């Protein structure tokens, strides 16, 4: 039999040179959290506990997958976002901390109930589901062009006990508007093709490129389409929020200004990078 501590030592040995020791310890915690539901404190105090044969098989398989730089969230099948658990796999991008900041930004900006919310680019469903948890009475709708993403997001809505309206819609195809919204939010594809060369293998090899990349010649193609959508879909005084590529904050604001939005501004993330843009539709 193997103890938790012996497994962590094996994990550190096998992943040495692939990633740093802090991340390896985090991997160990996330794997034990997946297997046994341990909190971080419980993980720190369980080092001499014996692992079962089934757990050892899973953990040895995890080492092989981590050596291939598969994301830990795909191995555990889940991640935490806004205090909620979301299923994660190849069907959609893994939720990032920056997107969590976007949701915090929105929820901190609005003290009152929001009635109608549209999210464009469903992914795992982390944005619309988190907003529905914040405002349970709101009608929350989300669009995506990917059947895979929508299927995963539906599973996450069920997991988190919320009702969301899911629609397969291509925002680049000038969709018809069925209702008006108080809030339009999107974390669209914004990584340019030329940025691929500096990206990690675990992203390039395991996450859907459809949700990541835009052509260098049209880096704002989704922002333009979604901003145009907002001119028809937002109620007077409604807000639009974007997560953005840090290189294009000024350009996104200029795009919104050109479409007659007001108060467009760039907001930095916790690392001080231009990461979000918000504006008001005056109607």
Task: Give me the secondary-structure topology.
Blueprint: H1 4-15, H2 21-36, H3 40-44, H4 53-67, H5 72-76, E1 78-81, E2 84-87, H6 97-109, E3 116-120, H7 126-134, E4 139-144, H8 147-159, E5 165-168, E6 181-186, E7 191-192, H9 201-204, E8 213-214, H10 221-233, E9 234-243, H11 249-258, E10 262-268, E11 274-281
Parallel strand pairs: 3-4, 3-6, 4-5, 6-9, 7-8
Antiparallel strand pairs: 1-2, 9-11, 10-11
Helix pairs in contact: 1-2, 1-4, 6-7
Structural overview:
The protein has 283 residues and is α/β, with parallel strands linked by helices. The chain has two domains: 2-68; 83-281, Vaccinia Virus protein VP39 (Rossmann fold), CATH 3.40.50.150. Helix content is 41%, strand content 20%. It contains eleven helices and eleven strands. It has helices at residues 4-15, 21-36, 40-44, 53-67, 72-76, 97-109, 126-134, 147-159, 201-204, 221-233, 249-258; strands at 78-81, 84-87, 116-120, 139-144, 165-168, 181-186, 191-192, 213-214, 234-243, 262-268, 274-281. It has a seven-stranded mixed sheet, with helices on both faces. A hairpin with a 2-residue loop joins strand 1 (78-81) and strand 2. Helix 1 packs across helix 2 (21-36) and helix 1 (4-15) packs parallel to helix 4. The mean pLDDT is 95.
Overall pLDDT confidence: 95
Along the chain, the helix and strand elements come as HHHHHEEHEHEHEEEHEHEHEE
The helix count comes to 11
| Whole-number count of domains | 2
Shape summary: elongated
Q: Write the CATH homologous superfamily of the largest domain.
A: Vaccinia Virus protein VP39
Largest sheet, order of strands side by side? 5-4-3-6-9-11-10
| Helix amount | 40-55%
Largest sheet: 7 strands, mixed
Strand element count: 11
CATH architecture of the largest domain: 3-Layer(aba) Sandwich
Which CATH first-tier class of the largest domain would you pick? Alpha Beta
Beta-strand percent range = 15-25%
Rg calculated over all Cα atoms: 21 Å
CATH topology of the largest domain: Rossmann fold
List the uncertain runs: none
In whole angstroms, the N-to-C terminal distance is 67 Å
Structural class of the secondary structure composition?
alpha/beta
């Amino acid at each position: 039999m193997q103890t938790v501590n012996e497994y962590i030592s094996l994990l550190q040995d096998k992943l040495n040179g692939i990633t740093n020791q802090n991340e390896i310890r985090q991997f160990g915690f996330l794997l034990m959290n997946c297997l046994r539901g341990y909190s971080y404190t419980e993980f720190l105090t369980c080092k001499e506990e014996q692992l079962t044969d089934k757990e050892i098989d899973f953990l040895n398989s995890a080492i092989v997958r981590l050596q291939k730089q598969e994301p830990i969230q795909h191995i555990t099948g889940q991640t935490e976002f806004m205090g909620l658990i979301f299923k994660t796999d190849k069907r959609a991008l893994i939720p990032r901390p920056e997107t969590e900041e976007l949701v915090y930004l929105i929820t901190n900006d609005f003290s009152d109930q929001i009635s109608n919310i549209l999210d464009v680019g469903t992914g795992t469903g982390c944005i619309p589901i988190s907003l529905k948890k914040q405002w349970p009475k709101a009608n929350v709708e989300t669009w995506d062009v990917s059947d895979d993403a929508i299927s995963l997001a539906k599973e996450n809505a069920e997991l988190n006990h919320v009702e969301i309206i899911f629609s397969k819609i291509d925002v680049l195809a000038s969709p018809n508007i069925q209702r008006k919204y108080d809030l339009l939010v999107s974390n669209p594809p914004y990584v340019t093709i030329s940025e691929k060369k500096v990206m990690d293998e675990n992203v390039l090899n395991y996450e859907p490129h459809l949700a990541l990349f835009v052509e260098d010649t049209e880096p704002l193609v989704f922002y333009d389409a979604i901003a145009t959508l907002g001119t028809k879909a937002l109620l007077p005084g409604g807000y639009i929020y974007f997560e953005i590529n840090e290189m294009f904050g000024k350009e996104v604001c200029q795009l919104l200004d050109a479409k007659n939005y007001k108060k467009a501004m760039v907001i930095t993330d916790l690392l001080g990078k231009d990461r979000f843009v918000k504006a008001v539709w005056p109607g």
